[in-house]
Amino acid sequence: MKTAKRMSRWKKILIWISVVVVALVAGVFVYLKSVTYSPSGNAEAAMLSDDQVHVTTIKQGYRFEPQGKEAVEPNIIFYPGGLVEPASYAPLARAMAEQGHRVYIAKMPLNLAIFGQNKADIFIAEHPDEAFVIGGHSLGGAFASRYAAEQPEKLEGIFYLASYADDGGSLKDTSLSALQITGTDDGVLNKEEWEKTQTNLPEDTTFVSIDGGNHGQFGSYGMQKGDHAPEITEDEQLRSVVQALDDWFNSFK
Q1: Whole-angstrom distance, CA of residue 175 vs CA of residue 183
Q2: Which of 18, 57, 145, 231 is most buried, taking the most CB atoms under 10 A from its CB?
Q3: Residues in CB range of 40: below 8 A, 6 or more apart
Q4: Alpha-carbon dihedral of residues 111, 243, 217, 74, nearest 10 degrees?
């Protein structure tokens, strides 16, 4: 009898523990959803296919390809910034697809690249004999760098948008090419860490500073908390990024 009562008590305890755990997990999901940045109307429009760019939703993200012609190399893999929905980078992906490149934007668990560092493997597997570069914005750039540090043989280079290579993503001993782009009105990027970690970059690194650009306008999701007001428009910042990428790709030849 005592054993039965003891078992019943433990069942009640386990049920309450399960309820508390479920409530905590649900609370975390609700909180993360509330602080996650969503794509702007401009970004949502860039997600639509047209006669220039074909947009496909794939299991691990989105693929942007030029319509009616072969894609030019390198293919581009992009890791979104932390707590930013991937579609927020559709204007950049579309612009590069219009330039002829195949572009992949990765979907990250909970919109945090820390949980999806190796997503690039899935995209590279689609065209294993072609050249790829990887890049990312903010937190996404840091984990793109960690991927590149572990598998440099799969890539031609890496680009950072308001981001840097931390010690876990050091590329100083690789032969990769790197491009680091920042905005002069960025209020989110840790400038001290950015400067300190330049020693982790490969010898072949190009630095580009966009006058008047801020942190959030590397994507298209509105004003980010802690950021500074930009002195240029989102379209102007996008054009500067596209030009920098084009110039960087030309340096590969």
Answers
A1: 26
A2: 145
A3: 88, 220, 221, 222
A4: 0
